Amino acid sequence: MKTIIVASTRRYSGKTGVCLALIAALEQRGLSVGYFKPYGSMPRVVDGVTTDRDAFFLNAGLTRPMPVELLCPVVRTRSFVEDLLAGNPVAGGAEVTAAFERGSADRDVMIVEAPSDLEQGAAAGVCAADLFRLLGGTILLVETNDVNDPPDRVVRAASAFPSGLAGVVYNRVSEADKLVVTERYVPFLSARGIRTFGVLQHDPLLSSVTVREIVEVLGGRVVCGARGLDAPVESFMVGAMGQEKALRFFRRKAHKAVVTGGDRADVQMAALETSTAVLLLTGNMPPSPAVAARADELGVCTVTVDTDTLTAVEQLDTLFGHVRLHGPDKADRMRRMFADNVSVDDLLAACGIVQPPSVLEGA
Q1: In this predicted model, what pLDDT tens digit does every residue of 220-236 receive, in sequence order?
Q2: Dist. CA 67–CA 361, nearest whole Å
Q3: CA angle 37, 333, 52 (to 5 degrees)
Q4: What's the pTM value of the predicted model, to 2 decimals?
Q5: Measured distance CA(3)–CA(154) in Å, rounded
Q6: CATH code given to domain 2-203+325-362
Q7: What distance in Å separates the CA atoms of residue 265 and residue 293, rounded to the nearest whole number?
Q8: Rounded to whole angstroms, how far apart are CA atoms 233 and 189?
């Protein structure tokens, strides 16, 4: 059985999407694949078991899904953090190893999604380096780029895993930066013995969320425009200015969420005159009858939330930072992008995976 640990040096690199696409590529080659996320940071309770939201979605689409109780043995809940800091017993390396051993039985390949960056999970003994020590296998780095800096993070990671790094896949690269990455970064890394298997361009659709997801995460209450719950949202803006300035401001972005105080009817009306998918009214204040009527007429979902504007913005920032693959259209697009832009056979060979064991036995 082979193990590939998909890691990154920074948050929001799109590891989950790469895991999904890599699993599809392996299954197409006739291999039995399992998915495992040792450390989760987006809690969700399923049948009484606390797991990770994104991990649960990805796992549910597999030919042989992992049992939910084994999928994500360490989940960063509030109580987990409090117990960890107080020195109370919490799940850690032993639980990860036990769950992995049970879940990997009779699998050809296990795809392990490491925590958000190389440091996350260290306090519980389950950061990427810990996972490599506990589970073995090969490290695949998924990286985003910053063309203002050399690839310091990748070089540092290569030195941290001198015997275990298969190489790198660059993800979420802007169209403007793609040439720099392919013609400058890739040769630079190659000269240092670090392979780059592919460069995936940023796709706004993959970063979008639905209104329904926003309502769920913010714990909001739909006041009107419920038929717009499944509308895609590509970004969010905060309305805290006068109506005239707000109108010019809101015209800059389409398919957006607008966060504003429930008492700011002028800002809300300005947002409704532009491409807005959802109005998020903070302070648990309902819209005025005029705003509600206009929003309902346009099919713009209007939601009240208990939190203040700052808290709502922080929650949205986390939500939009992720590449959200909930939904078949996004998952299919990620699989196609991966197949078209990544040297999958070279990647698998670097991880010691050449062809299914059944083929080897018949050779």
Answers
A1: 999 999 988 988 888 88
A2: 29
A3: 20
A4: 0.79
A5: 21
A6: 3.40.50.300
A7: 12
A8: 36
